[in-house]
Design brief:
The protein has one domain: 3-Layer(aba) Sandwich (Rossmann fold), CATH 3.40.50. It is an alpha/beta fold and 260 residues long. The radius of gyration is 17 Å and the shape is globular. The protein has helices at residues 17-33, 41-51, 67-74, 92-101, 137-149, 164-171, 173-180, 189-197, 200-215, 219-227; strands spanning 55-59, 82-85, 106-108, 125-129, 154-158, 235-244, 247-256. Helix content is 42%, strand content 16%. Strand 6 (235-244) and strand 7 (247-256) form a beta hairpin. The longest helix is centred in the first third of the chain and has 17 residues, at 17-33.
């Protein structure tokens, strides 16, 4: 299936902040409710080990993604774990909720953070969930280049493949929005209005979900990106697919080679 980099409304600076937040809140709810990235926990464990610490810098965090579930899977082996949430359009309300519910494992960066040029003070194992496909090829490669330049371990995780089956699956996402919205907390009248009375949230989730499938990079494409990096051979790269319940997670893990 060819890759098409069509517009995702969530990416646009002019897009209304409240609608974007309702969309990322929905994604956060779904990924945690169904533990979408449970299969990727061993890869996260390895990334933490290679980073030599317990600090995760999550880039393009949206509404916090699957981290509430992932922390529960990681904390036993990593009792000092800390996850710092960041985003180009930081959803402060969602991040604050993560801090309240997260048992001391979460913090967040209030200012905008560009994944292409991560500020020097943000040090740790860099992760991205459900966001790498948002970036055009040159920008996606720059995310990896920035990690190499800063000798930072990086993990990329996607919850969909670019395939006909996943395209069909995402075609029915508005139904999920309508069914699940009443259970998303904290309760918001705005969320109800823009889901049921003026149903823009289901429409935009539907469109952005389909476009996400069409934008997702394949294992081969991510491998080609790593080969084109400056000094990319100083890193080990692990790229592949892993089953996570009924889902498939695409992943990339990059870390500096051990010096001989």
């Amino acid at each position: 299936m060819p890759r098409f980099h069509l517009i995702e409304f969530e990416d646009q600076q002019w897009f209304p902040k409240n609608i974007r937040n309702y969309m990322t809140d929905f994604l956060q709810f779904v990924t945690n409710q169904f533990d979408m990235f449970k299969g990727s926990v061993p890869i996260l464990q390895k990334g933490l080990a290679k980073s030599g610490g317990y600090q995760i810098i999550d880039l393009a965090s949206g509404g916090g993604g699957a981290w509430l579930k992932l922390v529960n899977h990681l904390k036993e082996k990593n009792p000092e774990l800390k996850v710092q949430l960041t985003d180009y359009f930081p959803n402060h309300a969602a991040f604050e909720k993560m801090v309240r519910k997260g048992g001391g494992y979460f913090s967040f960066e209030k200012e905008s953070v560009n994944a292409l040029n991560v500020p020097k003070h943000l040090k740790g194992f860099r992760t991205q969930f459900l966001s790498f496909h948002h970036f055009k090829p040159a920008d996606a490669q720059q995310i990896l280049q920035n990690a190499v330049d800063n000798q930072s371990v990086i993990g990329i995780f996607e919850g969909q493949k670019r395939s006909v089956a996943h395209f069909i699956q995402f075609f029915f996402s508005p139904i999920n929005v309508l069914l699940m919205t009443p259970f998303i907390r904290p309760f918001s009248f705005g969320r109800i209005i823009f889901t049921y009375l003026i149903p823009v949230v289901p429409i935009f989730v539907w469109w952005d979900g389909l476009v996400s499938v069409l934008r997702t990079y394949s294992v081969k494409e991510m491998t080609e990106m790593t080969k084109a990096l400056n000094n990319g051979d100083s890193f080990e790269w692990e790229i592949g697919e892993i089953k996570s319940g009924p889902m498939v997670n695409l992943y990339l893990l990059g870390y500096p080679k051990e010096k001989k």
